[in-house]
Specification:
Helix content is 77%, strand content 0%. It has four helices and no strands. It is globular, with a radius of gyration of 12 Å.
Length: 69
């Protein structure tokens, strides 16, 4: 949650929503949470890039690690 807030400018509420969405993984890729994860990824990557000029590929990899755990 702190990474999302510090790197990508998420609010506390958005970071908590991200945590809840990532915790509730489903094997069904067509479910609602799958779409929410895509939106979260885009916001995380674009926020880090625009706020801190961080590399998009690096932020994609970081999100993958966050999503895995």
């Amino acid at each position: 949650m702190n990474l999302a807030m510090d790197l990508s400018g998420f609010t506390e509420g958005e970071a908590d929503s991200m945590r809840k969405t990532l915790v509730k993984k489903s094997l069904d890729q067509a479910d609602k949470k799958s779409g929410e994860r895509v939106i979260l990824r885009e916001k995380f990557v674009s926020g880090a890039k625009s706020l801190h000029g961080l590399d998009e590929k690096l932020m994609q990899q970081l999100f993958d690690k966050i999503e895995f755990f």
